[in-house]
Design a protein that fits this description.
Elements (H helix, E strand, L loop, with lengths): L1 H25 L1 H28 L2 E2 L2 E2 H21 L6 H6 L2 H7 L4 H7 L4 H20 L6 H32 L3 H13 L11 H8 L2 H12 L5 H28 L6
C-alpha cells in the first residue's frame, strides 16, 4: 500500500513538473529574464564575499574561507526550497478564488498539492550554477573537508529541508486561517537571508530569535559548522530533534487549519 501511494504521488508530481516545464517554454523570455536576475544576484553576492576574503582574514571567530561555507549552505537550502515549494507563493490566490475547494476534492493530499504542486523549473536550473560555484569556491579555499564531515553535513542538510518544509507548512496553515500568505512568505525569506552569516555573528535578541523562534541558525549555521568540524555530537542530535519536532507541530497546525476552513463560498 505504501509503495502504491508513493508511486501515485510521484506520478502526480511528475505531471505537475511537466506542466511547469511547458509553461516555462511558453513564457521563454520572462523565464530567461528571471533566471538572469537570479544569476546576477548570485554573482554580486559572490563578488561581495570575495571582496571580504581579499580584504579581511577573519570575520568574528571565523576565517573568510569558512564564511564561504555558510553562504553556500544558505544558497543550497534556499534554492532547493524555492524550487520544490513554489506552490506556497500562490496559495493565497487559491484560497481567495475558491480553487482550494477543488483541491480538497481530489484524491491527493491537499497539503501535498499546496506545498509541492507547482515546482519552479527556474530554480531547478539555478541549482546548476549554484552547485558549480560551491565546488569552485571550496576548491579555491584552504579548507580541508573530510568524508565523515561531508556525510554528516549531507544528513544535516536533509534535516534543514525538514525544517524548511515545516516552516512552509506553517505558512500554508496560517494562510487558511488568515488568508494571508505573501507577508509570511517574505518574512520567512528575510529571516533566511540573515542565515548567510553564522548566527553567532549577531547580537541578542536577534541571535536567540534565529536560533529558537525561527530556527534559521539550526537550518544553516549548524550544518556549516559541522562541515568545518566545529559542531559536537550533542549539537547534531539536538538539531535532528528540532527537525522532527517542527515537522510534527506544523502537521498538527495544518490539521487544525483545515478544520477552520469554511470554503470560499461561505
Amino acid at each position: 500500500m505504501m509503495l502504491t501511494n508513493l508511486t501515485r504521488y510521484w506520478n502526480f508530481w511528475q505531471k505537475v513538473a511537466q506542466n511547469s516545464l511547458q509553461q516555462a517554454f511558453v513564457n521563454r523570455a520572462t523565464n530567461v529574464l528571471f533566471l538572469l536576475g537570479k544569476l546576477v544576484r548570485l554573482f554580486f553576492s559572490l563578488l561581495f564575499l570575495l571582496a571580504i576574503k581579499n580584504n579581511l582574514q577573519w570575520f568574528g571567530s571565523y576565517t573568510t574561507d569558512q564564511l564561504l561555507i555558510f553562504f553556500l549552505t544558505y544558497q543550497i537550502i534556499d534554492v532547493v526550497a524555492q524550487a520544490v515549494f513554489r506552490g506556497v507563493y500562490s496559495f493565497a490566490y487559491a484560497i481567495r478564488n475558491g480553487e482550494f475547494d477543488l483541491t480538497l476534492l481530489k484524491p491527493i493530499s491537499p497539503l501535498f498539492q499546496a506545498l509541492m504542486g507547482n515546482p519552479d523549473i527556474n530554480d531547478v536550473l539555478f541549482l546548476i550554477p549554484t552547485i558549480g560555484a560551491a565546488f569552485f569556491l571550496i576548491n579555491q579555499s584552504s579548507l580541508e573537508l573530510t568524508a565523515p564531515h561531508l556525510l554528516v553535513y549531507a544528513a544535516l542538510l536533509f534535516n534543514s529541508m525538514l525544517i524548511a518544509t515545516a516552516l512552509h507548512i506553517s505558512i500554508l496553515a496560517f494562510g487558511i486561517i488568515t488568508m494571508e500568505v505573501d507577508g509570511l512568505t517574505w518574512l520567512y525569506r528575510d529571516f533566511l537571508y540573515l542565515g548567510q552569516l553564522p548566527v553567532d555573528a549577531y547580537k541578542q535578541p536577534i541571535r536567540g530569535l534565529l536560533s529558537f523562534v525561527v530556527p534559521i541558525g539550526i537550518m544553516i549555521t549548524v550544518p556549516a559548522r559541522q562541515l568545518l568540524g566545529l559542531t559536537n555530537t550533542v549539537g547534531i542530535l539536538f538539531t535532528g530533534l528540532v527537525g522532527i519536532t517542527t515537522i510534527v507541530i506544523s502537521l498538527q497546525l495544518w490539521k487544525f487549519a483545515l478544520k477552520k476552513y469554511s470554503s470560499a463560498s461561505s
